[in-house]
Amino acid sequence: MNPYLFPFFAVSIWAFNTIVSKLSVGVVNAEAMAFYRWFFAFLVLTPFVIRGIRQEIPFLRTHFWKVAVLGFLRIVLYQSIIYYAVQMVPATTLAIFGGLVPILILLFGTFLLRTPVTIWLISGFLLAFLGVIYLSTKGELSNLIALEGHKGEFLLLISSSAYALYTVLVKRWSLEINTWNFLYLQIGIGLVILFPFFIYQGHYALSFNAAGLIAYAAIPASLIAPYLWLRGVAQIGANRSALFLNLTPLLTITLAILILQEPIDRYLLIGGGLILLGIATTFIPNRQATKAGKITV
Predict the structure, then answer these.
(1) Where in the cell is the protein located (predicted)?
(2) In this predicted model, what pLDDT tens digit does every residue of 252-265 receive, in sequence order?
(3) Cα 31 from Cα 34, distance rounded (Å)
(4) Where are the domains of the chain?
(5) Confidence (pTM)
(6) Which of 131, 204, 226, 236 is deepest in the core (most CB within 10 A)?
(7) What are the pLDDT digits (tens) for 264-295?
């Protein structure tokens, strides 16, 4: 198979998972969706990694708090919080905020990895920030003062920021551990944190429709897509694979229009356009401008 298909199929699975998240509203509680997704992913992954996990005990004793922080950022804040936000925003908004992750990674990287800041990064961040404000207030800036209309978008900003911080910390800490064992440990920690919320909500029974949605989130989105992504990174490199992430908003919005029949409102076009323009601005390949715009942090 063409190696470029690996990252393409991975982002396609993740894009469809956004639609699955939206379809879960009214079918399964947010707390139950978040817990069951990772619980079944944990069960499926267990037979394949249990022997390796035993060998990681010394590693876990040394780096437990780092694994705990990463598990909290990825499993709880990044992916589980989406099930709350999706009850208040359309799938198209989820797609746009997902597209904000690369620019947030660059932003966190300037502080934690000491990567240089360029004029393009600053300009792109400002454009994207304006887009977030416009999108969050649904085009009515008076809502910003009244704190109305943007709770879901605020949760998505936390979610996207959590994954960006997760990505930067993984690179900074460079923990030497098998990728699947690492994911397994993060899921385990995430489940411990999510369990009290799952128990508190009190709805444990699953309908047939709910089981299908959870199965997709647990297997293709949580296990198969990461596997395909890793295969792609191994064969074509991380930088080329990362370019496919830019397809996620487009694929998700297209699926939302076709499957969910979501309308594209004016505020969505303007706010989303500013965010996407900001993302594109940060990747302008202008070496001369980059050198002239460097700032030491």
Answers:
(1) Cell membrane
(2) 888 888 898 887 77
(3) 5
(4) 4-282
(5) 0.80
(6) 131
(7) 777 778 877 887 787 777 666 544 444 443 33
